[in-house]
Design brief:
This protein is α/β, with parallel strands linked by helices. It contains 10 helices and 14 strands. α2 packs across α4 and α4 runs parallel beside α5.
């Protein structure tokens, strides 16, 4: 199929582009390069630079490339920034996504795959986290993702589209061959921050909270490899043929790792000791978040290739070791 990957020059989107090609599909990338990297997109993959909110430009791309399905990875994802600058997130994550959907309907494209987040649930009422939990976001980032989910529900109910929304947990790792990986400016994710501290690109790693009700006192999180995420998004294509179809899946390994366990995995991969500075808890950090992904495994035959933190960190280290400056375009 011809697949438009919105945000396809970003971290998760660029990995999905390669998985699409490997599965025999024809990806087309649309990205405004605010956070994406042009060099993350293979030269053979068509690239269109445009804003999702530009309905005319997006509709033209959809028609010219005869797009069959749209995958949306084009959201802003800094939770803290969403609190301090919520309008930025409502404009890009909610409003621009609605414009994208409008452009799709105008171009006759009715299949949609949405990159959502476990942040739509807020603080979970039970663990592991299944799809049926109450959705009570505690920050604008999670709320804007839920806004799009609700718009998708309404459109599917009206028979306008079919869609799947994937709520995943801590995306991590890099392509197995080390060709593409994680390069955020600023970087906020634990694994790349720990790697930077291990190799001396930063003097220390700040560890927020050591008094949580967890085995070692630090937060527990569910790390899922970026390529495993990508394969789930592609596996759902066959279920989108029926107008009005609506699917929701939580994606994670189901086995959480503590912050200290992640730090030890990075030290093991790099062979370097990390200077850890212990700090107070950050406001809004739940003690534990991890997924129940039984539904995705059952309905999509989704299999996790990277089930443990050591295998995930090994791929991240391969990327960072060979690309110490990331893509080098910022």
């Amino acid at each position: 199929m011809n697949v438009l990957v919105a945000g396809g020059a970003g971290y998760i989107g660029s990995h999905c582009v390669r998985q699409l090609s490997a599965a025999g599909h024809r990806p087309v990338v649309l990205d405004n390069l605010v956070y994406g990297h042009r060099t993350a997109v293979p030269a053979a993959v068509p690239f269109e630079q445009a804003d999702l909110g530009d309905e005319k430009a997006v509709a033209e791309v959809l028609k010219r490339h005869k797009i069959d399905v749209v995958m949306h990875f084009g959201a802003y994802c800094y939770v803290g920034e969403s609190v301090t600058d919520p309008l930025k997130y409502y404009l890009n994550n909610s409003a621009a996504a609605v414009h994208l959907l409008s452009a799709m309907l105008g171009a006759g494209v009715t299949k949609f795959v949405f990159s959502s987040t476990c942040a739509t649930f807020g603080v979970p009422s039970k663990l592991p986290m299944g799809e049926d939990l109450p959705q009570v976001p505690i920050n604008p980032y999670g709320q804007t993702k839920l806004d799009v989910e609700n718009a998708l529900r309404a459109l599917a109910h009206a028979g306008k589209i079919s869609f799947a929304a994937f709520r995943y947990f801590n995306a991590a790792g890099a392509a197995e061959d080390g060709s593409i990986g994680e390069d955020h400016k600023p970087e906020t994710h634990l694994i790349p921050l720990a790697i930077d501290a291990a190799v001396g690109r930063r003097t220390s790693l700040q560890l927020f909270g050591t008094d949580y009700p967890t085995p070692d006192g630090t937060c527990l999180r569910d790390y899922v490899h970026v390529d495993d995420l990508s394969r789930a998004h592609i596996a759902v294509f066959d279920k989108l043929s029926t107008p009005g179809a609506a699917f929701f899946y939580n994606l994670g390994t189901g086995t959480p790792n503590s912050n200290r366990e992640v730090i030890r995995a990075v030290e093991k991969a790099t062979g370097k000791k990390i200077n850890v500075v212990e700090s107070a808890r950050r406001e809004g950090d739940p003690p534990a978040l991890y997924a129940d992904s039984a539904k995705a495994k059952r309905e999509l035959n989704w299999k996790v290739k990277f089930p443990d933190i050591d295998s995930i960190v090994a791929t991240a280290w391969k990327w960072h070791k060979s690309h110490p400056e990331g893509y080098g375009d910022r």
